[in-house]
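Subject: Sanity check before I submit

Could someone independently write out the structure tokens for this chain? I want to compare against mine line by line before I put it in a report. The sequence has 187 residues.
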Amino acid sequence: MIDMNDAFRFAASCSSPRELISRLQFGMTELWPDDATVPVRWHYMADLIDSERGLLVELNGAVSRPVVDALAAAAELCRQSASEPVPQSDWRLLRRAMEWLETSSSEVDRAVLAVGDELALVGLEGEEPDFSVVSWLCLETLAQFEADRETIDYWVDRANLPEPSAVHQRAGSVLDQDELIPLSVAV
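---
Independent answer below. Compare away.
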């Protein structure tokens, strides 16, 4: 197994956002170590979708209003999941809304809806959710439609913060001080 320092060098050595996304997609690297708590992962996903640097802001104007509303609801369920269990019925309802919206959506809407649908599946997993697929889908959507390496770098850096207090200061983060834990890229 590769240790955490090697894993970070592995992710940091990516020559492009596309390479990093491919490594995430094929399980060659992971955004978080095994000891990252589930609430921290839920908050990260909520912020990745709906914050000052999140998916919805970065794709501003390219995503239809109903899709924005559905993804904002998904982000809110993520924030709620960080502090309390969310009923399975809420996640199923979100999935149905995503499926309904997908039938008459643009390419960018469908990509964003895929993120929301995968997030709903993560919510339905229960106790030990796996965020790997939804993480790379979100970064893939950013790279495909936003094409700004700075944005991808921001989210990778945010997952690799050296000290917990830095998480709280990031744009749009809603983590409580007692939930702050640094994340790092793991393989």
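---
OP: Matches mine. For the report I'm noting this point. The chain has ten helices and no strands.
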